[in-house]
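We both want to read discrete structure tokens more fluently, so let's practise on a single case. Once you have written the record down, we can walk along the chain together.
***
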Amino acid sequence: MRRLLALLLVATTFCSFAQKKEKYTELYYQRASLFEILPVTSDDIVFVGNSLTHGCEWHELFGMPNIKNRGINGDVIQGVFERIDPVLNGHPKKIFLLSGVNDVSHNLTADSIATAMGKLIDYIRTKTPETKLYVQSLLPINNSFGRYKAIFGKEQVIRDINAKLAAMADEKGFVWINSYPIFADENGNLDARYTNDGLHLLGVGYVHWKNFLLPYVIE
């Protein structure tokens, strides 16, 4: 009987672990485990986010070795929340936070996404109040490429999220960076010059972004 109970306990533990590991992608856990090891110091500037952050060599783009990339392709706000402690424990000089478009693809409302971002922002501000926090707007999308069906028709949701985040800035004590207009074409879509899939950026897009962000990075 004891042996059977022990086997059941092991099986339950294994199943719980497996379910936990399946919450996000394999890539999420690969990179999150690396980020737990890599140090963050009070001299660092950390970019935190999803694939738009992941896809850039920020330290090379800005020519600043103290910039750290903590982006994970496909990440959602809760995923950022669950892996942010190794960043916050280092009390970095600045954090540039961008998240939410993958939550949009999961059919969440603008209200629920903005609320989740607000909780993440509050957590960051509480854990490391000396860190200057910059919250970046979601970028426009361009569905004419026909690549990501989960975000078809979600342009207004993105704009609503940005409006709600902008309204939080003074109350929650972060710097709001509205990058949306610099990437939008005359129709409010992600300018085709900067993307080849309607969501992610080409190199020229990152250079454009860098020029816009530079005053915030060096201030």
Q: What stands out?
A: Residues 4-20 have pLDDT under 50 and may be disordered. The chain has eleven helices and five strands. Residues 2-21 form the longest helix (20 residues).
